[in-house]
Amino acid sequence: MLLELIALCTNLFYFHSWSFKDRDPWQAPQHWWLVFMPVLGGLIVGLIARFLSPKVRGHGMPEAVETIVFGKGRVQPRVAVLKPIATAISIGSGGPFGAEGPVIITGGAIGSVVGQLLPVTDSERTVLMVAGASAGMAATFNCPMSATLLAVEILLFEWKPRSLVPVAIACVTAGAVRRLLLGPDSLMSMPATQGPVYHSAMIGALLVGIIAAFVAAGLGKAIHTMEHWFEKLTDLGVHWMWWPAIGGLGIGLGGLIFPRALGVGYSVIQQMITGSDVTWKLLAGVLIVKTGIWIFSLGSNTAGGILAPLLMIGGALGATLGHFMPFMPIGAWVLVGMTAVLSAAIGAPLTSAMLALELTHNGGLMLPVLLSCVAAYAVSVLVQPRSMLTEGLSRRGFHLSREYGVDPLETMLVGQAMHTSVFALPTTATRQNALDWLRATEERGAAGWSHWQRVFPLVDEEGKLQGVLTRAKMIVAAGQSDAEKDRPLLDDANLEPATVSPGDTLRSCAEAMAESKLTAYPVVATDGKLVGVMTLEDVLKGRSEQAHRESDRERVLRLRWPFSTRKPVTKVETVTE
Q1: How far is CA 312 from CA 93, 154, 258, 532, in A?
Q2: Is the pTM of this model over 0.85?
Q3: For 408-458, how does the pLDDT look when each residue is reduced to its tens digit (9 = 90+)?
């Protein structure tokens, strides 16, 4: 429906006909007044954002990330309707954007609405939203595997079966239904690479990946600078509703210079991939005009996606560099360049590499494509702290890390971190024993009161836990009158204390502490016997171990040269940062 709507808007703006024929804006007869078509489209988008929903602004993916991480997966139902309409108007009026970002947020909105109608948790609602968003990308590019990887690398922020399975099923479903609606063909056709890829081409792919990282960093910096400039218009009394129209003026002027910069640009990408008629004029138009109007219009916060423009700019970069590295056809360098720029810009190397395979069905280029994507990603991490998707969120006070990692609290068990030397009392203990403990503690002074133990278990003859006393209750019991000194401490104890098992992870123990507001738990084995006490400080041992793994350097082995007179090293040298 979105693709049909984009085609309709394109025909209305540039061909002045009610038609759903798939045409590009640059195919229309050129007239000077076509400059104002993007202005009109931007004005309509601004009105929709002002009076119906401001969520239609933006290119979709950062908004999806923000909703997933910070918004509990809750999207207004109207976004599912208004976002594709605003996008179709923006692209149909000549906007240099792609349809994939808005489809992602639209699919996410549908998943979120379903999650809001069902009695589910915030985590489950978020999974439904990610499933819809990933399915949107799978439907746009006919790439179910890349869409699943996109969810893993950017959207899910976890690696669990509860989220991966429904997301993958949604992507496969979207890909299968797309075949029925739009056909099974790949989005872009490319001659299959039959021969081997030589090492010289691999070195070239590495170089393209490095250059692509700096290009992507420059694009991100330029976009956020342009957004900052548009925000300054507010100080001049220009409401943000007019920003998309101002951005549209830049699009129209760029379209006069290089008409092929208008619209999504899939036909231009296809032309570069096939390697037919890839002139320097075409490459300069994409790298200068297309890039310029895309940055300017995206800074105006209008509706439109970033994936297709990044592919187009990256393809032109690859074709330009490919002229100096004739180890592969120009079309191959286009594919290497477009996926490398995409990988560096959004921080998703596996998604980008798989997208190259699914867009073209050309598996022969997987090695140079994967190398360039990983190289671009590695360099981009060094040159820019955040990706193009999360930089804007960080400016609004939201922190998102680039890195995935295993939670160290998930890899250590309670039995490995608990205190096993515990002062436990028998069930026959009385309040007099509590008084004796209090006097001994006072005699020790600060050392006694700073002792780690804050809970005191009561165990029977078999060592099974029967109750727990906190230190505060021990002090109260010790202060009772002499007539009450013979009463058992079980009368003052909690007879049904919360416990943890030695087989529980530190993460589950930390969650229990957060839920109950308790900072110490008795550790009880499956037979009911007390085996230790778990405190908040013990939970932090998992983090401490991880910190040592990251900072402590040690030389485990040393090389022994033949006929050497040096004695072998008998100890391990450790250097702590």
Answers
A1: 19, 21, 14, 62
A2: no
A3: 787 788 888 898 888 888 888 888 888 888 888 888 888 778 778 888 899
**Amino acid letter, residue 165:** V
DSSP 276: S
Q: Which residues pair with 474 in a beta bridge?
A: none
- Spatial CB neighbours of 43, under 8 Å, sequence gap ≥ 6: 242, 244, 245, 248
Helix (H) or strand (E) holding 524: strand 520-524
Q: Domains (ranges, CATH) in the chain?
A: 2-182 (1.10.3080.10), 199-395 (1.10.3080.10), 409-543 (3.10.580.10)
Nearest to 265 by CA among 420, 94, 436: 94
Answer whether 206's CB lies under 8 Å from 371's CB: yes
In whole angstroms, give the CA distance from residue 126 to residue 237: 38
Q: What is the dihedral of CA 131, 132, 135, 141, to 10 degrees?
A: -130
Q: What is the per-residue pLDDT for 59?
A: 66
If we measure between CA atoms, which residue out of 154, 199, 163, 175 comes closest to residue 60?
A: 154
- pLDDT-derived band at 568, boundaries 50, 70, 90: low
